[in-house]
Write a structure and sequence with these properties.
The complex is a heterodimer. Chain A is mainly α. Chain A has a single domain, classed as A middle domain of Talin 1. Chain A is built from twelve helices and two strands. A two-stranded antiparallel ribbon of chain A has the order 1-2. In chain A, helix 2 packs antiparallel against helix 7, helix 8 runs antiparallel to helix 11 and helix 10 packs antiparallel against helix 11. Chain A starts with 15 loop residues before the first helix and ends with a helix. Chain B has one domain. Chain B has eleven helices and ten strands. In chain B, a hairpin with a 5-residue loop joins strand 8 and strand 9.
Chain lengths: ~300, ~400
């Protein structure tokens, strides 16, 4: 049960305080038109959240299917020593993982098994998953001491990745999601961008961070879109702000498209990274208010 | 400001029910969480001029410069309305929210809960870019331009300029940081931080009640600074008057703010003989008295000579070159802070003076003086100017208004 009001409307929706202040200044209006009270959803709104949950579950399953399909091709190429093909498949395949990563993170140690970065490991912890293979495919920055994986090792780690992702597919088949979970997942996806992709620390060998960036944003946008019918009723101003901010971030990301994908992270200037970071902040702040509008 | 305590209205009641704006702020918070109602550590936010200029200089500073990320005037107005409301609350020692649902991020970041306002002032300024981005060329004060390149400037663009600035001063560093952090959070989408500067110790006194502090050269600094009590001098040298700039009369009651990040070659200075240090500054290190004689507050005598005829105050001494008599009578209200931002890769302190000065006319009061200092001051051997910005500081805010309303309203 929620408290009967939002906290100070300073943050909510980005402009609520201005609206409130304007009302106060004009001395008119007997109700807050933003309808910011979240004393609970109506039965109809709860039904909309239920629909959103089902739609989001389908999205997660769909993304996971694409992830499996791509990963099968990826590991086949990698095991066969077709490194160019494996490199080409790496980022577009991982995008399907990045789009739903907060869901994957809820299933035990599936996330560290598949997505740990070398720097994440503790002493003695075995390194498996995407980034181990990434390093093997892009050894240029790995230093002179790097020893390429043997064919046997390649097969071991590639098969392990595939089986871990099959486990994910099994898990998401039965998962369902509350409005709050979907909203918080969107917020976490933007945190992923802010803490990993915007700094180029996610893909330190392949520098394909912008693929992940786009996928995180896609996943967050989908979460917002399934919840939008609820938000339109409970906090339309927040909905408008989010629509605008998603579009602004996408416009900036689109500037870095090349062919079917994106330029290398290393091609970005400091100013370009700052502009992307500002747009991520501009989106993340109202996105953090989404949960209160749907629960 | 005496908050209209005891109105007994919840904030929500205020915001939702359209109560007059006079109630917005401290009074609206309800009695439950007020932490600073009873103390006297609050500086009024509202007034003819913005607080934080002639307010007795607090011990700590956090200063931030922002780039606008919108060219939409209405969005900037909304930002300034949010900033005004938040600044009033924080200067009153109040948090930005008092009851957060568990599933929402807290409205206030929390680190100042339980602390007094510690004389917090929040002072807002506009850079040249704001006028450019909002298409307000006609209202732009004519003296508001990027500062010129001064000799020996080695500016870092990432530590210079900006479309908006906020100076948060408090006797408690946590309170100052809390203010900038929360204002930055309220700005996401409209403005993004460009650079910021912590200052740990004031280098100027702006009131006769304050002792003159020392800068990181170890000397008393700003002895001859303008003081709030000298109302006539402050009026003459700090506040822009109606008619000063007929195209920008909205700025009347405001001021220009010069910000310079000046890094000191600390290690070299510390190896400089005491006598040479005093000669370079022009003051006695222990007492602050000018080398021409007397006590700290004695006016320097630039004609005083030693027996051999050489001046007691060297021609390239800082006191001589910075003195109003060497600058056509120009005076500044200095409000700078010492900073130490860790060290460089060679293990040298990255420390110095974050120079802040308020002037009525930068073209006559600051630029000629800095040009002279940059080219002649013997201290320049130990100084590197790394950051630079010029802002206008709008006049004070009345209840029910937002900062900058005279320009954007």
């Amino acid at each position: 049960m929620l408290l009967p009001s939002r906290p100070l409307a300073l943050l909510a929706g980005g402009t609520s305080l201005a609206l409130a202040l304007a009302l106060a200044l004009s001395g008119c209006g007997s109700e807050d038109p933003a309808g910011a009270d979240t004393a609970g959803l109506t039965v109809e709104q709860q039904a909309l959240v239920g629909t959103a949950g089902a739609e989001y579950a389908r999205y997660v399953q769909h993304e996971t299917e694409h992830l499996l399909e791509g990963t099968r091709a990826f590991v086949t190429a990698y095991k066969a020593g077709q490194d160019d093909r494996a490199r080409a498949l790496y980022a577009p395949t991982r995008a399907h993982w990045e789009a739903v990563e907060p869901v994957a993170e809820t299933f035990g140690d599936l996330d560290p098994r598949t997505d740990a970065r070398e720097a994440d490991l503790e002493d003695g912890q075995e390194w498996t998953g995407w980034h181990l293979i990434e390093k093997d495919l892009w050894p240029a920055d790995a230093g002179a001491g790097y020893v390429a994986l043997t064919d046997t090792q390649r097969t071991t780690y590639a098969d392990r990745l595939l089986s871990d992702l099959q486990e994910l597919e099994g898990q998401v088949a039965h998962a369902d999601y509350t409005g709050e979970q979907i909203a918080n997942g969107a917020k976490e996806l933007l945190d992923e961008v802010a803490n990993g992709k915007i700094t180029g620390e996610e893909e330190i060998w392949s520098h394909t961070d912008l693929f992940d960036f786009q996928a995180n944003v896609d996943g967050a946008k989908k979460a917002f879109e399934v919840l939008e019918p609820v938000v339109e009723q409970t906090d339309p101003e927040l909905g408008e702000t989010l629509t605008t901010r998603f579009a602004e971030l996408q416009r900036l990301l689109d500037e870095h498209r090349r062919g079917d994908g994106f330029v290398s992270y290393t091609a970005l200037s400091t100013d370009q990274v700052k502009a992307l970071s500002d747009a991520v902040n501009a989106l993340s702040e109202p996105l953090a208010q989404l949960a209160t509008a749907v629960a | 400001m005496t908050p209209a305590a005891g109105m007994g209205l919840s904030r929500r009641g205020l915001l939702g029910a359209g109560v007059g704006a006079a109630g917005l702020g401290a009074a609206g918070l309800g009695a439950g969480i007020s932490l600073a109602q009873a103390d006297d550590q609050r500086v009024p936010f509202f007034g003819e001029h913005q607080a934080g200029i002639v307010t007795p200089a607090q011990d700590r500073l956090y200063f931030a410069s922002y780039d606008l990320s919108t060219i939409d005037r209405a969005e900037v107005v909304a930002l300034l309305q949010r900033w005004t409301a938040a600044a009033e609350l924080m200067c009153g020692g109040e948090p930005l929210g008092d009851h957060d649902p568990a599933i929402a991020p807290p409205a206030d970041t929390g680190e100042a809960l339980g602390l007094s306002a510690a004389h917090l002032t929040i002072t807002f300024g506009f850079g040249p870019g704001l006028f450019e981005k909002l298409g307000l060329a006609a209202q732009r004060p004519r003296l508001l331009e990027r500062l010129p390149h001064f000799p020996a400037d080695q500016l870092d663009p990432a530590r210079s300029d900006g479309d908006l600035c906020v100076q948060a001063c408090s006797d408690d560093p946590q309170v100052a940081v809390h203010a900038i952090r929360n204002l930055s959070r309220l700005a996401f989408g409209q403005a993004a931080m460009r650079w910021s500067q912590l200052g740990f110790g004031r280098t100027s006194s702006t009131s006769t009640t304050q002792q003159t502090p020392r800068n990181l050269f170890g000397f008393k600094d700003g002895t001859a600074n303008l003081k709030a009590e000298d109302r006539a001098e402050v009026d003459r040298h700090v506040w822009v008057r109606r008619g000063d700039d007929p195209g920008a009369d909205w700025l009347a009651g405001g001021s220009y703010l010069v910000a310079r990040r000046i890094v000191m070659s600390i290690e070299s200075w510390d190896r400089t003989p005491a006598g040479e240090q005093e000669t370079l500054i022009g003051r006695d290190r222990a007492t602050g008295a000018p080398l021409s004689g007397g006590g700290e507050s004695t006016a320097p005598d630039f004609d005083a000579t030693f027996a051999d005829g050489s001046p007691k105050l060297a021609m390239d001494s800082h006191v001589r070159l910075a003195h109003p008599s060497s600058n056509g009578g120009a005076k500044l209200l200095r409000r700078g802070y010492n900073f130490a931002d860790g060290n460089d890769e060679l293990g040298r302190l990255t420390a110095g003076l974050f120079f802040l000065a308020y002037v009525r006319n930068p073209a006559t009061q600051y630029i000629p003086m800095q040009s002279q200092l940059s080219s002649k001051d013997g201290l320049m051997e130990y100084l590197i100017h790394r950051g630079s910005a010029l802002f206008v500081v709008p006049p004070g805010v009345r209840r029910g208004e937002y900062v900058g309303q005279a320009l954007l309203g």
